[in-house]
Amino acid sequence: MTRALFIIDVQNDFTEGGALAVEGGSAVAEGISALLLEHPDAYDVIFASRDWHDPDSDNGGHFAREGDPDYTESWPVHCVAGTPGAEYHPSLLVPDTTIHIRKGQGEAGYSIFDGVSEGGEKTGELLIANGVTDIDIVGLATDHCVRASGLDALEHGQHVRVLTDLVAGVARESSDAALAELGYAGSLLVTSDVVA
């Protein structure tokens, strides 16, 4: 068994004070760092995704450039490539060996599987190359990018656990629904105390 950790979108724009702040986002960043410090050998490979949207387009309608966003298909401008909002939250400390995935370049890009590494490799290809069979998922936001990444991981044949104490969502109802959907699809919903 080769276990990977997916750290989804723990970025400044998705944490308190950001353009699309998720309540509890900073605590998630701190919690992930504490987990990695306490269990440095728990994961064979770590992936960290970031929204990395193009500055000069609406990214396939993802940015509401005119009018109000509907917060379902369109959103306020956020995580623009190269800006402070797109950087990881300062409390998120990851190993040097972390594979960084950028997504949403010219498109919505909710799932980590929509992105590519700095070397241009797709997430699915990297999972195969590293022999990954099991994935733990943490990060932001439960009801959007965590949900999409988890469902895609299951579709790729992975055994998935969502560490429910290390995710935070936009809204309680939609986050609960996302976790229920992930559980129904085959994910295990557990807390980080299962990590050894």
TrEMBL record:
<dbReference type="InterPro" id="IPR052347">
    <property type="entry name" value="Isochorismatase_Nicotinamidase"/>
</dbReference>
<dbReference type="GO" id="GO:0008936">
    <property type="term" value="F:nicotinamidase activity"/>
</dbReference>
<dbReference type="Pfam" id="PF00857">
    <property type="entry name" value="Isochorismatase"/>
</dbReference>
<dbReference type="InterPro" id="IPR036380">
    <property type="entry name" value="Isochorismatase-like_sf"/>
</dbReference>
<keyword id="KW-0662">Pyridine nucleotide biosynthesis</keyword>
<comment type="pathway">
    <text>Cofactor biosynthesis; nicotinate biosynthesis; nicotinate from nicotinamide: step 1/1.</text>
</comment>
<dbReference type="InterPro" id="IPR000868">
    <property type="entry name" value="Isochorismatase-like_dom"/>
</dbReference>
<dbReference type="GO" id="GO:0019363">
    <property type="term" value="P:pyridine nucleotide biosynthetic process"/>
</dbReference>
<feature type="domain" description="Isochorismatase-like">
    <location>
        <begin position="4"/>
        <end position="192"/>
    </location>
</feature>
<keyword id="KW-0378">Hydrolase</keyword>
<protein>
    <recommendedName>
        <fullName>nicotinamidase</fullName>
        <ecNumber>3.5.1.19</ecNumber>
    </recommendedName>
</protein>
<dbReference type="GO" id="GO:0046872">
    <property type="term" value="F:metal ion binding"/>
</dbReference>
<comment type="similarity">
    <text>Belongs to the isochorismatase family.</text>
</comment>
<keyword id="KW-0479">Metal-binding</keyword>
